[in-house]
Amino acid sequence: MTAGILMIIAGIVEAIFGILGTVIGGAVAGWVSMPGLGGLVGVTAILIVLGIVAIVGGIYSLKRQTWGLALAGAICSLFGPWFILGILAIIFVSMGKSEFSQGGASVS
């Protein structure tokens, strides 16, 4: 449960930073002729996608479904100054792997 909360928090922060970076970078690139800012907008757009994956992974972690997606969300929450949340989420998701439902047919 802690891993899911950490992933959701990191994902929200990551998405907010990505949105702000995209908006600010796009506005500045429109005002000033600096070709390098186009790359900044691309990088911040990646942060938005990583933040969304982290949030979805956090939701699946809270539901204890699809361990792989929960782990992917934890890994996506690593990128940024909040990386400690991602490290803790990876540790907690890995420790709680046995609590996740397997989904599909059960193997006996």
What does this structure look like?
The protein is mostly helical and 108 residues long. It has one domain. It is 74% helix and 0% strand. The longest helix is centred in the first third of the chain and has 30 residues. The protein is elongated, with a radius of gyration of 17 Å. It starts with a helix and ends in a 13-residue tail after the last helix.
Tell me, briefly, the overall form: elongated
The tally of strands reads 0
Helix content: over 70%
Give the integer mean of the pLDDT values. Answer: 82
Report the end-to-end length measured between terminal Cα atoms: 27 Å
DSSP strand content? under 5%
Low-confidence stretches: 104-108
Structural class: mainly alpha
For the biggest sheet, the summary is:
none
Helical segment count: 4
Order of helices and strands: HHHH
Q: What oligomeric state do the depicted chains represent? A: single chain
Estimate nothing, just give the exact number of structural domains: 1
Q: What is the radius of gyration?
A: 17 Å
Name its key features.
single chain, 108 residues, mainly alpha, 0% strand
Blueprint (SSEs and pairs):
Elements: H1 2-31, H2 37-63, H3 67-76, H4 83-95
Helix pairs in contact: 1-2, 1-3, 1-4, 2-3, 3-4
Brief write-up:
The chain is an all-alpha fold. It is built from 4 helices and no strands.
